[in-house]
Design brief:
The chain has a single domain, classed as Alpha/Beta hydrolase fold, catalytic domain (Rossmann fold), CATH 3.40.50.1820. The chain is about 35% helix and about 20% strand. The chain contains 9 helices and 10 strands. Helix 4 packs across helix 5.
């Protein structure tokens, strides 16, 4: 998301000056994704045991993931983790390295184009990957209601996935961390941050698509929803979570974390949110 402003600005200016809307439409949507195939960290360095898994989406894309089993004999549930827009699972798995010791299984997977998942990410196939990941858990590991957690870009993908599967697969909670629910609104919010791009905000409705976004998010009801956001998030403003919370139906909660940034909410303030989250799940 950090590079969204500069790249999308150039595309929008090009559209304004030359009118090449069709050619730029896909390019502007793709600015939400910054995949890499570099392996940043090995879970073995943290003495974490994991299962290397692969499965396919409805469109035939192969998805790679890591499954971490609870270190307790009887697990308390399974978390399906949708990571953010940059890097891959080898960096994002660190966010929940502590979950297995607390009795939870979790699966983290890469969208097409990320890590060892071939292809290129799109709003449609990232959701397909989430649907396939949920199905893999149900068919191979845990048929109990699923805990869905989406961070940053993963939040909008997680919510859309929940809408797609909630009538076929039980879902226990949907947790949205530092995220947004509309590609168009997010693009407009980024453009509004600078006086010289403020006038271009309406163009986001032409070059970005919400065909695969979860709005209106009240469709997720009656699944309990939790929105978490740091007060000092430099990437996505807390007002994004406040708006989603207002739009969602009960049961719902909103946690605004003092001193929280983007992706560090379980580490700040003496890790108090970590225990609060465990209490919430129980």
């Amino acid at each position: 998301m950090a590079k969204l402003r500069s790249k999308c600005f150039k595309i929008l200016i090009f559209i304004a000056l030359h009118g090449t809307l069709l050619a730029s439409l896909t390019a502007c949507q793709s600015v939400f994704y910054y995949p890499t195939d570099f392996k940043y960290y090995d879970p073995a360095r943290l003495n974490l045991k994991y299962e290397d898994v692969r499965f396919k989406t409805a469109s035939g894309n192969e998805i790679h993931g890591w499954y971490f089993a609870s270190s307790q004999k009887d697990s308390k549930g399974t978390v399906l983790f949708f990571h953010g827009n940059a890097q891959n699972i080898s960096s994002h798995f660190m966010m929940f390295y502590w979950l297995p010791k607390e009795g939870y299984n979790y699966l983290i997977f890469d969208y097409p184009g990320y890590g060892e998942s071939p292809g290129a990410p799109t709003p449609e196939n990232t959701v397909e990957a989430g649907i396939a990941a949920a199905a893999w858990i149900r068919e191979n590991k845990d048929q109990r209601p699923l805990i869905i957690y989406g961070q940053s870009l993963g939040g909008i993908i997680a919510m859309q996935t929940a809408i797609k599967i909630k009538d076929q697969q039980p879902i226990r909670n949907v947790v949205v961390d530092g995220s947004f629910s509309s590609y168009k609104k997010m693009g407009r919010r980024v453009l509004s941050r600078s006086w010289w791009t403020w006038w271009m905000q309406p163009l986001t409705y032409a070059v970005l698509s919400d065909a695969h976004s979860p709005e209106p998010i009240d469709r997720i009801s009656p699944i309990p929803m939790l929105f978490i956001h740091g007060t000092d998030d430099p990437i996505i403003e807390p007002v994004s979570s406040e708006e989603m919370f207002a739009a969602a139906r009960d049961p719902k909660q909103l946690w605004i974390v003092p001193n929280g940034h983007h992706g560090d909410l379980f580490e700040v303030n003496n890790r108090e949110v970590r225990q609060k989250f465990l209490n919430y799940l129980q």
